[in-house]
């Protein structure tokens, strides 16, 4: 029987402490996701006034993200990111327990984000050939997440064995657990890619939108590829997790990339809903610069008062009554899309007001003249 002196020394290096890195990465991505979700609810609730299940699922995902961040912050307090030899045994047990609690939260959160994105895609996909795959993926992700969470709680004879080393460990072998972790990561990457590219791009490509709007919409949806990247970067961290028993140290990169994947999903899933806000901000900034370029101040020039009126109402126009752009009308005769249900709410905001005010701030020599002498807006 081996004595304590015969046992190998516990991994130790007091100079290595990844706790601050874990905390910094987690807090930064969570705060960014929180701000994005707040902006989403402002646009969808007060501007577009068209809330849906995708918004409610995203709010739930954000709540899970905040809870996960709280748990991870506490785990850092109790040794996460440090070597087992540098943490007191009772502190180590608390850190391991918190590490365990964060895992089902992350798994559930990633699934909820996908449900939100799926509901958003259902807003624009009215044809059965798109709706059935979307609904199928959503159902599969719910079932698979329930399965992975079940294995998380049943992989040991007693749940406490996963954080309390004083209890004789009777759990599944490490290879089985790693195989499940790899499978879960691969499925997340695959579904992220399907929801970011495979399904939305063909749907949007067939819509009768102007190229500028279509390109902007696809760019926003392609942000989902960053979620795929975070998932890919998480895979190498799974291979060596727990091989030496130094769980809190091994969890550092795994935790960072899992949280990054979760919060990036929230951000990417919310960005398309912010298009009306971005459009108003960019239009306001662009036209202010245009006026300054041609020498008109807010209170000078023949049209100074009109430009001043536009500047003061720039963001108020965000709440004004919206109308569809003539270039972005969608032919719904085939039932392929309901423009009112478009998750991106592709409606220029008070565009008529903006065009009218800009026309008065541009000199005649800088505006193309139509054969009838009317001015055209090349940027519209």
Automatic annotation (TrEMBL):
<feature type="transmembrane region" description="Helical">
    <location>
        <begin position="20"/>
        <end position="43"/>
    </location>
</feature>
<feature type="transmembrane region" description="Helical">
    <location>
        <begin position="132"/>
        <end position="153"/>
    </location>
</feature>
<dbReference type="Pfam" id="PF20684">
    <property type="entry name" value="Fung_rhodopsin"/>
</dbReference>
<keyword id="KW-1133">Transmembrane helix</keyword>
<feature type="transmembrane region" description="Helical">
    <location>
        <begin position="105"/>
        <end position="125"/>
    </location>
</feature>
<keyword id="KW-0472">Membrane</keyword>
<keyword id="KW-0812">Transmembrane</keyword>
<dbReference type="GO" id="GO:0016020">
    <property type="term" value="C:membrane"/>
</dbReference>
<protein>
    <recommendedName>
        <fullName>Rhodopsin domain-containing protein</fullName>
    </recommendedName>
</protein>
<feature type="domain" description="Rhodopsin">
    <location>
        <begin position="39"/>
        <end position="279"/>
    </location>
</feature>
<feature type="transmembrane region" description="Helical">
    <location>
        <begin position="185"/>
        <end position="205"/>
    </location>
</feature>
<dbReference type="InterPro" id="IPR052337">
    <property type="entry name" value="SAT4-like"/>
</dbReference>
<dbReference type="InterPro" id="IPR049326">
    <property type="entry name" value="Rhodopsin_dom_fungi"/>
</dbReference>
<comment type="similarity">
    <text>Belongs to the SAT4 family.</text>
</comment>
<feature type="transmembrane region" description="Helical">
    <location>
        <begin position="55"/>
        <end position="76"/>
    </location>
</feature>
<feature type="transmembrane region" description="Helical">
    <location>
        <begin position="217"/>
        <end position="236"/>
    </location>
</feature>
């Amino acid at each position: 029987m081996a004595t304590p002196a015969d046992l190998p020394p516990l991994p130790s290096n007091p100079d290595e402490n990844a706790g601050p890195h874990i905390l910094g990465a987690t807090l930064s991505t969570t705060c960014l996701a929180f701000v994005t979700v707040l902006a989403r609810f402002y646009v969808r609730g007060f501007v577009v006034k068209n809330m849906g299940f995708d918004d409610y699922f995203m709010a739930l995902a954000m709540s899970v993200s905040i809870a996960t961040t709280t748990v991870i912050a506490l785990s850092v307090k109790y040794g996460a990111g440090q070597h087992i030899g540098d943490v007191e045994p009772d502190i180590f047990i608390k850190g391991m327990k918190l590490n365990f609690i964060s895992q089902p939260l992350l798994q559930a959160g990633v699934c909820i984000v996908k449900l939100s994105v799926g509901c958003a895609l259902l807003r624009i996909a009215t044809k059965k050939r798109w709706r059935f795959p979307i609904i199928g993926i959503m159902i599969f992700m719910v079932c698979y997440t329930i399965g992975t969470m079940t294995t998380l709680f049943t992989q040991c004879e007693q749940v406490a064995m996963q954080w309390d080393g004083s209890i004789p460990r009777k759990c599944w072998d490490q290879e089985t657990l790693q195989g499940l972790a790899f499978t879960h990561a691969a499925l997340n990457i695959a579904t992220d890619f399907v929801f970011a590219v495979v399904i939305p791009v063909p749907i949007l490509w067939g819509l009768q939108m102007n190229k500028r709007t279509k390109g902007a919409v696809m760019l926003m949806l392609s942000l989902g590829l960053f979620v795929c990247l975070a998932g890919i970067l998480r895979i190498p961290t799974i291979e060596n997790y727990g091989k030496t028993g130094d769980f809190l140290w091994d969890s550092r990169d795994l935790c960072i990339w899992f949280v990054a994947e979760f919060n990036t999903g929230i951000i990417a899933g919310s960005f398309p809903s912010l298009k009306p806000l971005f459009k108003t901000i960019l239009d306001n900034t662009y036209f202010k610069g245009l006026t300054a370029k041609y020498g008109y101040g807010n209170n000078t020039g023949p049209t100074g008062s009109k430009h001043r009126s536009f500047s003061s109402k720039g963001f108020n126009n965000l709440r004004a009554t919206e109308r569809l752009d003539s270039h972005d009308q969608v032919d719904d005769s085939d039932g392929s899309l309901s423009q009112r249900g478009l998750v991106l709410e592709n409606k220029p905001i008070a565009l008529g007001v903006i065009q009218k005010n800009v026309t008065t701030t541009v000199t005649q020599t800088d505006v193309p003249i139509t054969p009838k002498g009317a001015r055209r807006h090349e940027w519209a």
